[in-house]
Amino acid sequence: RRHVLEASQQLTEIINSETSAESPEPSEEAELVNEEESALHCLWVDKFTPRRYMELLSDDYTNRCLLKWLKLWDTVVFGKEKAVKKAKPSVEAHPPFNQPKEQQNKWKTKVQLTEEVLEAELDQHKRPKYKVALLCGPPGLGKTTLAHVIAKHAGYNAVEMNASDDRSPEVFKTRIEAATQMKSVLGANEKPNCLIIDEIDGAPAASINVLLNIIHRKDAEGEAAAGAGRRRRREGGLLLRPIICICNDQ
């Protein structure tokens, strides 16, 4: 037993002396091992989080509505013309027999009403009627993941901010304008921003009023007076980027 211990100690000393004599730069094998260890120790929800639209497990109707609303911004953001949906003559010519014609026009399902809202005409600046989408639900439902995946799918660069962190209305306004008016410079592939405001229910009333003022801001070109035009330019330009708000308590 004594001989084995002495041999083991000698081997340990030889190994330690060899490792200390080597260069301090890590080898490629060591780097690969570190990457594998970091992948093993990352959070399960981060490892298996959805990366594409088809990987989302949330409500499909909600996903499609949010994507359709985001695509309404294509005209003003990407310069794409809105696709005209063709009418279905067969449905109009042969209505269902179980409902009278007057009742068909009067009663509409939630899906039909939402589709009509999303298919509404764009305003004079070619923006959708509703400038902000609000995602509500309990924690862990996948609201933030849905917003990021939809924004990436539609060709945007997702910019996330937390409304409950910025208690000052001035800071809140600065961050919103920076995300909605400035371009993102992330390498050669430049994409427009889509602002995602998390925990909007934790923001103070002053910050909500700042957000509403930015949404309802009108174009300064139509102002006749020079003073009014200068004031509009000082306040900021027209909102030309989509905003997605997330909250737990509607």
TrEMBL record:
Pfam families registered for this protein in UniProt:
AAA (PF00004)
Gene Ontology, cellular component aspect: nucleus
Q: Does the keyword Lipid metabolism apply?
A: no
Looking at the record, the residues that make up the AAA+ ATPase domain are 129-241
Q: Which CDD domains match?
A: AAA
Task: Tell me the protein family, please.
Answer: Belongs to the activator 1 small subunits family. CTF18 subfamily.
Name of the protein? CTF18 protein
Q: Which species is the source of this protein?
A: Nyctibius bracteatus
